[in-house]
Structures are given as C-alpha cells and as structure tokens.
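Sat 14:20. Reprocessing the chain from the morning session after the first attempt stalled halfway. Input below, unchanged.
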Amino acid sequence: MEKSHSFFFVVLFLVQNIKQSYQEPPEGDEIIEKNYYQINLTQVTGPESIAFDRKGEGPYVGVSDGRVLKWQGANLGWKEFAIPSPFRNRKLCDGSTNSNLEPICGRPLGLKFNTATCHLYIADAYFGLLVVGPNGGVAKRIATSAEGIPFIFTNGLDIDTNTGMVYFTDSSIIFQRRYVDYLLRSTTDRSGRLLKYDPRSKKVFVIYKGLVFPNGVSLSKNNSFLLVAESTRMRVLKFTLEGEEQSYVPEVFAQLPRVPDNIKRNKNGEFWIALNTGRSGSIQNNVSDPIGIKYDEEGNVLKQLDGNGGIAFNSISEVQEFNGRLYIGSVTKPYVGVLNV
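Finished this time. Tokens:
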C-alpha cells in the first residue's frame, strides 16, 4: 500500500509540474496538456527507442536484456516480440540490466517498422543491423560491417519506405555502447559513420565518415534529406539526398543546449529531437530543463518540452509524437513516459 501511495504521489507531482516552454512560438500556438503517465517495465530497463507498427499497435521498445518488447495494453502488459540471436542465453540474459552482458545478450537501440513490408528493423549496438518479420521471433542479421570495418556501436536508424533503403549510424569503431561515457568524453574519436543498407543488393554503403558520436537518424517527410544527431558536438546535421543539391557534405541543422539522442518525425513532417540532461538528480524549478525540442523542416523551433527539473526526466533518449501523445524513451529508466498533447 505504501508503494502504491508513493507512485500516486510521483504521478500527481509530474502532472502538476511538467510544463511546456517555448522559444519564440508562432502566434496561436497551443500549450501541451499536463497529462502524464508511465508504462512500467518489469525487471528490465532502458526503452531507448520506440516504434509502432502499421496497424498502430505498440509501443514496441528495445530494452536492457537485449529483447524487443511489445505493449499489448494494461490488461495484457508487455510481451516478448523479438530477440537478436538464436544463441542468446535466456537464463543469463532475461531480465538483465548489466551492461557488461550486452555483447552476449544484445542491446537494441534504433527501431523502425517498414510500413510497406511490416518488417521491423533493429539497430542492435552489438549484433549490427537486424530485421524481423511482422510476427516477431528471432531477428536476422543483415549487416555487420561496411568497407571491411565491423560495426562496433550500431545506433539510430530510419527507413525510406519507397525504396526500402535503411539509413543508420555506427557511433564509433573504437568504443562499444557499454563504454559510452568514454565516447562522450573523447576528444579524438571521430570514427563515427553514417551508413545506408540497400535491401535489393544487400550491400552497405558509407555515406559519411569522421562523425563525432553520430546517434539518432530521421528522414524528412518526402525523403529528400536526412537529419543525424552528432551527440558529442551537441548538434544535428542535415544531409541532402535528392535533386540537384544532392550532397553528402552536411550542413548544421540545429545547435543544441544539451546532448541530442534520437530524432523522430511526426506525421506533419516536424522533428522531435530528444535531449539528454546529463544530470543525476533534480534541479531548481526556475531553471530551464529542455528534454526535447520540436523543429520544422527549415530548422525553426516550434516547441520546447521542459522536464521541470524532475528525476523522471533526467535521462531522455527519445520523444516520439504518435496519435496525440508524446512517448518518452530513456536508456536507463524502467518505464516509457507518456504525455497527452
């Protein structure tokens, strides 16, 4: 009973304190309703990325023990949808939150359904680029290296559903994900790569080298350009992919106040960029606490989501807008945050 009262107090506190702040909002902009709740995980942590299938079912999340889980609603809860390898040791891995077991158990990061095929593509930090059918099961490894160099830290991804091309990042060819703190502090590791997988030729192409911790990836609504978060440099880069201006030389799309993680596009073609706070506790209420910024295609700020200094939002990996809600992911928390908008 005491635990139940504590949880109720936390939720009530968040509902009253999560706020929406703005940077020069357009006239008539609406405020996000303060209606927040959490979808709790069992045993595992770290729903780093979030996906929904073509039917709108989900969310699907990749978690700390290497599995992809699917939310079936409050009555049925979470169920296992996919695992990264047929050799994964369930006794050792299921329920694990030990990052040192990730090379054995897997660690799914970027998730995205190809709505044309209903297949789920998974960027697993250790197992590489994977794909699994609409019924789930054991994912198939489809790419583990590019230009003879193995992936060391496969991270974000997005899919052009017209061509089937999968764009994804390999954050480093030196540091694995379990050493991410070293990568963030590194001033010399510029080994990150932006890659493209062609499902027809089954080949991987390197689009760009020399990135400093490339992370989340998102295509524009018409697939004419690609955004890539460069975490250590606290910025998002833009790569033009189509037309006469096609160039794999990036331009800066946004310079950010905090470390960016995943980038998710909504149905209107706007981008939510998640910001990791880099703090372990709470901060004063009167201090700005951006955990996500919404941009239009031109790079104009539309909204800024403020965590109001709460512990619930001190580790944010993703903000995804879907069916009137913001789904908030984290690489460390034991829940998916949901905010009605």
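The first strand starts at residue 19 and ends at 21.
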